[in-house]
Amino acid sequence: MTVEHPGERAILVHLDGRAPEVREDPYEFQELAVSAGAVIARFVSVARHQPTARFLIGSGKVEELRQLVLVEQADLVIFNHALTPSQERNLERALECRVLDRVGLILDIFAQRAQTYEGKLQVELAQLDHIGSRLVGSRTDLSGQQGGIGLRGPGETQLESDRRLLRVRVRQIKQRLEKVRNQRQLARRSRQRAEIPGVSLVGYTNTGKSTLFNLLTDSGVFAADQLFATLDPTVRRVDVPDLGAITLADTVGFIRHLPHKLVEAFRATLEESANADLLLHVIDAQSPERDEQIQQVHNVLQDIDASDVPMLEVYNKIDLLENVDAHIQRDEQGKPVRVWISAQQEQGIALLQQAIAELLEDEIYIATVRLSQEHSRLRAKLFDLNAVQQETHAEDGASLLQLRVAKIELEQLLSREGISPADFFAQYTHQ
After folding, report:
1. What is the pTM of this model?
2. 375 compared with 318, residue with greater pLDDT
3. In this predicted structure, what is the pLDDT of residue 117?
4. What is the mean pLDDT of residues 278-289?
5. How far is C-alpha 187 from the geometric centre of its chain's CA atoms?
6. Are residues 104 and 92 in contact, defined by beta-carbon separation less than 8 angstroms?
7. Residue 374 resides in a domain
């Protein structure tokens, strides 16, 4: 079930007092509901240390909720926790209204946000998986209510028909997603052959990834102060000072206890992160849940086999902190590990680009080359690339050029000039 019509009145139910490793954030829960288009009629916090098998909450609290539904004229009740199919059915009967759990709520937001063909397929796959686990019990229960005798056969036939249609659709989606995945791999291999470094933005939802992406790429990706504002992946080519061309990917935001079916459904998309040369982990610097959000991102990266990819932490929204200026933090070897910025206020962007260039400097050719006067055309082209840091002259009139240029750009230039890169590096590098 989903929030079908924006403006539906919803009662939110949050279980408090559970173990820290499974406890959800009540404020994030409210943001999720609003992002789905719900109007929050009432927020109910239930102190419950041992959830019940039948309703998740106690029968007395269920009766209180039933009265609230009537008083508030609520369209649905949303739980900030995963419900089993039987719990969802039991609650719907008792409350006499639709019931949605946390997984269904997130799926609904994803369904609203998906814009591309791939994104819509991935959402539908996750939704069918979620619905399929509830289909059996729903149909079986329906047969039981009808008395069984004389009706049990048709009921089971309908159930089997539903199962078959669902299996067929799931198979179709997986086949189509496999084609998309193969296309993505071909595009990725093409970029790798061109030796363009790949950088991927990752982070908790609503940390400012899309705002930063737009700033770095001068593009118009949708960015808003809401959860999962961006769902579909976007890849752009960007020129970074002192480095050259890179590809920058904006990805879906992560969230605590991200439903496993969503991780699986979006694996093709998330592979952009797993295959990147560098991850920019965008962090909401002013969030009180900052440390927990960082851990949740690390958990998802581990799930998609991206935990070993080099990472630069980007602490965003410093404009909301007191006495914090844009700066780079380095480790004992002087390597950038963290950059403090404000994408909204465009603070520290040059520092971020500097840190990216330093971390990807293996992709940069830094050397002094010696070019005789007969290579004046190549000399002019190197100046056009802004590759020349300084020029001096030898006694015989040869130019000594101090170069700093992306290897891929230099190799492309040499290829256009008919010069072998290997010969150039071996013969023209000045010792």
Report:
1. 0.67
2. 318
3. 77
4. 93
5. 19
6. no
7. yes
Tokens of 40: 């929050």
Residues 346, 350, 356: CA angle, nearest 5 degrees = 120
Whether the pLDDT of residue 48 is over 50: the answer is yes
Nearest to 294 by CA among 264, 315, 263, 323: 315
- 257 and 329 share a domain? yes
Task: Please name the residue that has the structure tokens 């940390």.
Answer: 207
Identify the CA nearest to 248 among candidates 229, 232, 267, 235: 235
Helices (H) and strands (E) in the chain, counts: 14, 14
My answer on whether 133 and 166 are in the same domain is yes
Q: Looking at the structure, do residues 150 and 295 belong to the same domain, yes or no?
A: no
The confidence band for 153, taking pLDDT boundaries of 50, 70 and 90, is: very low
Q: Is residue 22 part of a domain?
A: yes
| 260 lies in the same domain as 406 | no
If you ran DSSP here, which 8-state letter would residue 44 be given? Answer: E
Q: Count of domains in the chain? A: 4
Same domain, residue pair 226 and 323: yes
Query: What range defines the domain where residue 103 resides?
Result: 9-111
The one-character DSSP state at 304 is T
302 and 335 part of one domain: yes
- Of 121, 110, 108, nearest to 252 (Cα)? 110
Mean pLDDT of the chain: 80
* Higher pLDDT among residues 148 and 157, named by residue: 157
How many other β-carbons are positioned within 10 Å of the β-carbon of residue 6?
Answer: 10
Asked whether residue 322 falls in the same domain as residue 208, the answer is yes
Rounded CA gap, 59 and 379, in Å?
82
- Across 179-213, b (16+ Cβ under 10 Å) vs e yields ebbeebeeebeebeeeebbbbbbbbbbbbbbbbbb
State both tokens at 124: 């539908």
The rounded distance, in Å, linking the Cα atoms of 231 and 126 is 14
User: Which residues are CB-neighbours of 222 under 8 A, at least 6 positions away?
Assistant: 210, 229, 230
| CB-based contact 225:206 (threshold 8 Å) | yes
Whether the per-residue pLDDT at 319 is higher than 80: the answer is: yes
The 10s digit of each residue's pLDDT in 25-42 is 788 889 888 888 889 999
In a domain, 4, yes or no: no
Examine residue 186 and state whether it is found in any structural domain, yes or no. no
